[in-house]
Amino acid sequence: MNEKNIENIRHSLSHIMTMAVLELYPNAGLGVGPVIENGFYQDYDLSEKISEDILPRLEQRMKELVKENIAFEQYSMDVDKALDFYKDDEYKTALITDLQEAGETEVSFYKSGNFENLCKGPHVATTKEIDRRAFALTKIAGAYWRGDEKNKMLTRIYGVAFENKEALKNYLAMVEEAKKRDHRKLGKELDLFAFSDLVGAGLPLFTPKGTIIRNELQQALLDAGKEYGMQPVTIPHIAKRKLYETSGHADKFGDELIKVVSHYDEFVMKPVNCPHHTQIYASRPRSYRDLPLRYIESTMQYRDEKPGEIAGLTRVRAITCDDGHTFCTGEQIKTEVANLCKIIETFYTGLGLYGKHWVSLSVRDSKNPDGYIGKTEDWDMAESMLEEMAKELKLDAKRVEGEAAIYGPKIDFMFEDSLGREWQLATVQLDFNMPKRFGLVYTDNEGKESTPVMIHRAILGSYERFMAVLIEHFAGAFPLWLSPVQVHVIPVSTEKHLAGAKDLAKELQNAGVRVEVDEADETVGKKIRKAATQKAPYILVVGEKELSGEDLCIRKRGTEEQENVSKKEFIEKVQKEISEKVAW
Amino acid sequence: MNEKNIENIRHSLSHIMTMAVLELYPNAGLGVGPVIENGFYQDYDLSEKISEDILPRLEQRMKELVKENIAFEQYSMDVDKALDFYKDDEYKTALITDLQEAGETEVSFYKSGNFENLCKGPHVATTKEIDRRAFALTKIAGAYWRGDEKNKMLTRIYGVAFENKEALKNYLAMVEEAKKRDHRKLGKELDLFAFSDLVGAGLPLFTPKGTIIRNELQQALLDAGKEYGMQPVTIPHIAKRKLYETSGHADKFGDELIKVVSHYDEFVMKPVNCPHHTQIYASRPRSYRDLPLRYIESTMQYRDEKPGEIAGLTRVRAITCDDGHTFCTGEQIKTEVANLCKIIETFYTGLGLYGKHWVSLSVRDSKNPDGYIGKTEDWDMAESMLEEMAKELKLDAKRVEGEAAIYGPKIDFMFEDSLGREWQLATVQLDFNMPKRFGLVYTDNEGKESTPVMIHRAILGSYERFMAVLIEHFAGAFPLWLSPVQVHVIPVSTEKHLAGAKDLAKELQNAGVRVEVDEADETVGKKIRKAATQKAPYILVVGEKELSGEDLCIRKRGTEEQENVSKKEFIEKVQKEISEKVAW
User: Fold this and answer.
1) Residue A81 binned pLDDT confidence (cut-offs 50, 70, 90)
2) Architecture of B480-579 per CATH?
3) How distant is the Cα of A41 from the closest Cα of chain B, in angstroms?
4) With contact defined as beta carbons under 8 Å apart, do A225 and A343 qualify?
5) Which of B235, B284, B306 is nearest residue A264 as measured by Cβ atoms?
6) What average pLDDT does the segment A502-522 reach?
7) A276 contacts on B by Cβ (under 8 Å)
8) Strand partners, B516
9) What's the helix, strand, coil split of chain B in %, to 5?
10) pTM here?
């Protein structure tokens, strides 16, 4: 079944659902009812508030309707006639008026059974095309008419639909699994981050364990970049508004720039880091001998997100960017981009994600060439340069029109997580524009002033979003090198073996391993079950035998068997797995 | 000579200076003229703008006056009479009115020669007490009458004075040396940090080299703290105003809190970090088994400093604190404070500063016991506890009244730099108050709710101020472990030896050493002189001989001699000196 057909099915099910709703609420007003990812929804103006208890009943009725093999028939009506016909229906009137204002003279309707609805289609020919076992109603939510909170709150009913029963089952299982892996839930259980009403929404506080993950990721980025001359720099979180007027961000962000009320200057919170980095470049004269200069930084930037859009770590107000800007000559672009791709490979290999990705060569929208800043010849050169490099580096890049940044084309890396969801994470972007705006120059090898090229790049994007992705991808069971607690030590008896367990922990700590000792006075069984929920890669239960110098008994996360190895062997094994970032 | 006498000398010289000024400007109005550190000043309302060219002439005349052995005689005058007598002198009238408003009925004057001045004294008996070779006039600056920019700008003449010629000479030499070491000057020469008009005053940008120093300091703090269970956490730079209303900082900072204009919440930029850290503590239930919790963080906080008060790195608007808060039980305070003192010892030993310090036991002002928050019995306990610990730890602490924090007593470490200047850097502070304000609790070993104690601590204070101190203390010649460039490699001939020099640099880099290769096509002599100004600890000049495998020729900073050692030996030596933080 192709994409088109499944969309027709979803759209038709939205009408069938409305038929079922109207049987219960004949006077329900109808808002919009589009196809969405995996399903559909429809907004209703009902006389009462309904709960999700109603969904099975509606679903059952829909199955019956589908079985009746109802046909979908289209017909058209003159706009004015339609407006007159529906003059008592405020929703239809508004929707038809929109179409009229957009220049339409006729509007389309679909009839199924005795239900007629304003609808552009397309639909299935008859409900025979729909598999009754392959759809489900999933939830009810409130939604303002036209998305405007000044309007009436309507009732939105969501459904999902697939081509067959198997696909629905897989989807529902994935949703169930995603719920279990929800980073907000696991973040709390594993004590990785917290929110405080006093601090404010969208402003995560990273606990010691969450900070270990952040710092390990940062160190991995530094390590991967060192070989290629990446140099950390440090900038503040505010700047004068003028900085962003110069860069163009003041125009772009407008009202979304967060003002900072100083008594002395007009400051804003930085929404991006590139303008600050240009000012380090500009702080002294530069020669071609100094280039490339490769500034990198993990730094927080701020966005005034709407309270309703804030969600866990995926949408926050304090965003820690793994940001970086390389300033180089035109001839150096190729090597620099290639090196950045190597850094991306090294970093994602350490997470077991490299290979599960595709690369987008994101270029201008050829139908809207005016939506970009800079000269056409610069763009042509940059796009063909990136395309050539993508070929040379065997990135197998897919050319995607309209996905370029406003200042230049880019290469985006899309990674797939263990639930099959796709995330745009790494990006390498060419920019011929900002260096000019800031008047950046270098003296070239003939003694003349030239403008450097700027390469914006992020390897993991934002730490917050990346951590959300990793937590859900690994279901909290991080690779050894990233685990906040790498070895969980459990004394058999708190009374007899705690001191020895602590000595062992100290020894492991001195060897560079992160260890936690369970000091609670509980049964070994309970302590092992507790440790398992904390997802430490290794659990060591230590009693008389182990503390007397005999082999340690190692429980490796995710396996049933236990392994006996000497302490020395175990320490060496763990050290090796950490330093080599062995995937689990 | 005691402190009192030198103050009399300085004060008397201020009068003598005015006698000399009045000879040139008989109608000069007289503002204030106090004794200050190392000297004195006097404000004059002159008919014209004068330049510092006049200083030698004034100084010469002062020496003549001092030689005349002029006597200082005091007399008093009834306030009303004085006001009438000086009714044409706006400055005297204002100053006498102040005294009258403060309740004085008589005012004091001093007469020296034919010069009479409103003055409380004391002074020398005669100028015989003043060493003519031990004072100097140093500079002229503008100063608003009463420090208010709405008033007239007066002319302030500064002088310095000491008990003898030797002391003046030492002081002037120190000033000269301090100018050479000025961190703003060296920061530019060594490319450590920069400022940008577009970013704003007081907002430093740390270059790659400056960031290396920051990061090395941060790593040294982490290393020193690891053994004692310090755990890095991560917080954002803004919070709701309510957080500081709860902590009490909103009251304390008032108008100085920097507002952040969000469309959705009332945010401010954090002026301190403790309230955020309390919220990590509060994010889950805590038991006595979890304590102590020791959160540390190097994070920027913001203060709305006046433009006129901003200076280099010593007074900035974005302040990176090496902050930390330990939450513990009352019984744990002692060990925790002792461990913090050990961390301070380790850290400052690595900078060669430990030993050149004294410790202040900063307690309440017994004359003003109401200026503090919290119960008297908590204060008594905390102060005696700190005193006891200071004794046990042999800190040789000096009890200083009135220097406690508003929420508790503290131990402050004052370090002396190579110019003999004293800096308050490390601090350990007890706080029984903030945990209560935030309602922090833990379940004690009897299952009851208890309030933890909070220990605020900073090891280096602010990174910006600390870097300013270090740059000036070391005159930019940092210890090896802290040097942005540890080995400076100079090829004898760029044409013949550059490739070999780069290979050698790579080898050193792989061994964890920071290296820079001079690629300029200049003479070896010039390259060595250039390298010396960059103050790399080691300079390696490499030519045919060195690249053929013979011993390397090492130039160590600050010594004349050159040493020949094998490459292997050199690498091992450098690695050892770095890891042991050998002082230079």
Assistant:
1) very high
2) 3-Layer(aba) Sandwich (3.40)
3) 29
4) yes
5) B306
6) 94
7) 199, 205
8) B488
9) 40, 25, 30
10) 0.87
Q: Chain A closest CA to B354's CA: distance in Å?
A: 26
| C-alpha to C-alpha distance for B503 and A545, rounded to whole angstroms | 53
Distance, CA of A505 to CA of B221 (rounded, Å): 22
Q: Which CATH class is domain A193-235+271-473?
A: alpha beta
Closest listed residue to residue B235, CA positions, set A259, A316, A303 = A316
What's the CA gap between B162 and A494, in Å, rounded? Answer: 69
Give contacts of B205 with chain A, Cβ < 8 Å: 233-236, 276, 279-280, 283
- Phi/psi at B559 (5° precision): -125, 155
ipTM of this complex = 0.87
Distances (CA, A) of A66 to A12, A21, A52, A128, A571: 10, 14, 21, 7, 63
Task: Looking at the complex, report in whole angstroms how far the Cα of residue A370 sits from the nearest Cα belonging to chain B.
Answer: 29
Q: Chain B partners of A214 at a C-beta cutoff of 8 Å?
A: 234
- B3 pLDDT above the threshold of 70: no
Rounded distance, CA B15 to CA B519, Å? 60
**Tokens, residue A572:** 């060496």
What pLDDT score does A1 carry? 47
Q: Tell me the domain boundaries of chain A.
A: 3-177, 193-235+271-473, 480-579
Percent of chain B at pLDDT > 70 equals: 99
pLDDT digits (tens, 9 = 90+) for B178-233: 899 999 999 999 999 999 999 999 999 999 999 999 999 999 999 999 999 999 99
Mutation choice for A interface testing from B149, B221, B227, B264 by most A CBs within 10 A: B264
What is the rounded CA–CA span in Å between residue B186 and residue A390? Answer: 44
The residues, any chain, with a CB within 8 Å of residue A570's CB and separated by 6 or more, are A552, A554
Mean pLDDT (chain A, rounded): 94
Q: How many CB atoms lie within 10 A of CB A75?
A: 9
Topology (CATH) of A3-177: Threonyl-tRNA Synthetase; Chain A, domain 2 (3.30.980)
Average of pLDDT values for B111-127?
93
The SS3 assignment for A4 reads helix
CA dist., res. B371 & res. B146, Å (int): 28
How far out from the chain centre does Cα A208 lie?
23
Q: What is the pLDDT of residue B267?
A: 96
Tell me: pLDDT of B256 over 90: no
Residues of chain A found within 8 Å of residue B302, distances taken between Cβ atoms: 237-238
